[in-house]
Amino acid sequence: MMKVPDFSRCPALVFTPMGRDAAVAVALLKETGALAHVCRDVVHFVAMLGEGICCAIVTDEGLRDADLKPLENWVSAQPTWSDFPFIILTQRGGAPDRDPELARLAATLGNVTFLERPFHPRTFISAVGTALRGRARQFEARLRIDELHEGEARLQTALTAGKLGTWELELSALALKASPACPPVFGYAPGESFTYTDLIASISPGDRSRMADAISRSHETGCDLAIELCTIWPDGTFHWADMHARLLRDHAQKTARLVGVASDITLRRMTEDSMQRDYDLLEARVAQRTAELERTHQLVLEEIRQRQRAEELLRQAHKMEMIGQLTGGVAHDFNNLLMAIMANLELLRKEPQDGVRATRLIDGALRGAQRGAALTQRLLAFARQQDLKVEPTHLPALVRGMTDLLERSVGPRVALELNLPDDIPLTLADGNQVELALLNLAVNARDAMPEGGALSIAVEEVHSCGEDGLAAGSYVRLIVRDTGKGMDLDTLAKATEPFFTTKEPGKGTGLGLSMIHGLALQLNGALRLQSEPGRGTRAELSLPVTAQRLTPESPKEDEQAEGIANGPTQASILLVDDDALIATSTAYLLQDMGHEVIEVDSGAAALEILKGGQWIDLMITDYSMPQMTGLELALAARELRPGLPVILATGYAELPQGTGIEILRLRKPYRQHQLAAEITRALRYARPTHRSP
């Protein structure tokens, strides 16, 4: 693409062979910013002419007697855009209408401006400026022509590459003009006669009306025409053509024509149809696969549920296994407690008159009973199946709270050493799971020291820089270290794998360390084991420090009971227990509080009392009874007397869920003030009940 020349670099030719005309012309041209080339003769002047010259300044005497044929040939050979400007300096009085020679020059050169000498410099500069501006417009015309030719070339290249045929339809006469590439789109040979009638005839009957509608819509609204048509070639084969056109009108709006292109899109449509068939087939397969996946998904939302249930059962089984391992020590300690109770009560029976001694014996029996109750409650709480509850936990306090259980677990041959500072920060953990983890580590340590040894349990605060699988931050670390057999590298590498155990068959599930490892990961911590054969094992459970605070604890059950008054006196209480010893003891406690007691030994007998219409303020029933449990009795009693308050006494850790009614629970063994507190609570919120006349 050529640019308009810079006239500071586009010279003018000066041919003034006599006098000072050349020097004057060159000086004046400099003022216009144009360069100047001075020619020595006509031959040199003609040779210097070219498209890069802006104009020529000559004197009439320089051309008057010269052979003008070469100059005439050059002027005639100019391209269509060029009309080279000549400025001829004439003698005074010289004009084409008075001088035949000047007229001949005007006819030969064409674009001539005559300037009579002498002239004013401004007149010369004005004439030169006019010539330069005219030449600039010629250069611009050349630029536009070149751009048009380049555009036509690019268009032709695009049409050829895209196999596009051009067409033009004059709408008033429906006269069609088509390029040679257009007829083959509709099945005709290139260059073959192809009229509008041939075009319509090649379109399938079902698409002809669409073509007519598209032409009418474009004619009426001026919108572009764009349509895909099914065509039938002369050989009877079916094809597809794509037609695009734009509406053009003349200035008078009298005639309009569509100018556009057409292309054969048969291959594309065949591909699209094939792809559509493939897509429909794929969509059907996807739908089928989706249905299969949904069925599989349901089997999996079920398999996962069963797996989760199995995991829960495994955890519970492992806890029960731990309790089984503790049974021997618990039985031994419980026998000691029962011995203390029995001995104190036997001595009390023999010496009833000694009040001081009797009081001391009774206190000893009560203390033994309380220790036994605390131990059994601890075991029941540990064995209970619970949901995970992550909350701020103070690990030293947690370890201290299970010291008795740990001592019973490791036995008398193992010395238990504790290092539990109070200034340890809190961590987020599930207390029940941490207790289970600690008990697992303690039992593993005990089994690794069959001849006895030392077990140390410590809690410390540590700071990690991102090592040992821990993110950078502060952690609370529970350390359990023993002096037992230890493990080699192979055993240590497998220690946390599920079901891996070095214990004898029937003495371990291999889930203990695996569960501790899973618990550590779940709480964003880590479990690390260090061990060498003959040098013992060190287990470190690291849990992140938390900024959360402990939730204020409610008063303990005994404190609540001590703070509650004995409650209303002279209540009528229906007491149900199949164990005569328990029933008698409870009845004495109730009567001692001033209540009226109706004592029965079965659920059926209790229901007979209720059916008889006797006034009852409250029913206290044991849970575990033959034929009818206490819970079943409570449900039946509520049907007879909906407002009847019920207290369920039980030694079990938990009761069946989903009873649908509110029942107070009194855990066995209980003391008189605990019994009084539950009676007060039950009667305080009781609704009035029916009293028969």
Automatic annotation (TrEMBL):
<keyword id="KW-0597">Phosphoprotein</keyword>
<dbReference type="InterPro" id="IPR000014">
    <property type="entry name" value="PAS"/>
</dbReference>
<feature type="domain" description="PAC">
    <location>
        <begin position="225"/>
        <end position="277"/>
    </location>
</feature>
<feature type="domain" description="Response regulatory">
    <location>
        <begin position="572"/>
        <end position="683"/>
    </location>
</feature>
<dbReference type="Pfam" id="PF08447">
    <property type="entry name" value="PAS_3"/>
</dbReference>
<dbReference type="InterPro" id="IPR003661">
    <property type="entry name" value="HisK_dim/P_dom"/>
</dbReference>
<dbReference type="InterPro" id="IPR004358">
    <property type="entry name" value="Sig_transdc_His_kin-like_C"/>
</dbReference>
<dbReference type="InterPro" id="IPR035965">
    <property type="entry name" value="PAS-like_dom_sf"/>
</dbReference>
<dbReference type="InterPro" id="IPR036890">
    <property type="entry name" value="HATPase_C_sf"/>
</dbReference>
<dbReference type="Pfam" id="PF02518">
    <property type="entry name" value="HATPase_c"/>
</dbReference>
<protein>
    <recommendedName>
        <fullName>histidine kinase</fullName>
        <ecNumber>2.7.13.3</ecNumber>
    </recommendedName>
</protein>
<dbReference type="InterPro" id="IPR005467">
    <property type="entry name" value="His_kinase_dom"/>
</dbReference>
<dbReference type="InterPro" id="IPR001789">
    <property type="entry name" value="Sig_transdc_resp-reg_receiver"/>
</dbReference>
<dbReference type="InterPro" id="IPR003594">
    <property type="entry name" value="HATPase_dom"/>
</dbReference>
<dbReference type="InterPro" id="IPR036097">
    <property type="entry name" value="HisK_dim/P_sf"/>
</dbReference>
<dbReference type="InterPro" id="IPR013655">
    <property type="entry name" value="PAS_fold_3"/>
</dbReference>
<dbReference type="InterPro" id="IPR011006">
    <property type="entry name" value="CheY-like_superfamily"/>
</dbReference>
<feature type="modified residue" description="4-aspartylphosphate">
    <location>
        <position position="622"/>
    </location>
</feature>
<dbReference type="InterPro" id="IPR000700">
    <property type="entry name" value="PAS-assoc_C"/>
</dbReference>
<feature type="domain" description="Histidine kinase">
    <location>
        <begin position="329"/>
        <end position="547"/>
    </location>
</feature>
<dbReference type="Pfam" id="PF00072">
    <property type="entry name" value="Response_reg"/>
</dbReference>
<dbReference type="Pfam" id="PF00512">
    <property type="entry name" value="HisKA"/>
</dbReference>
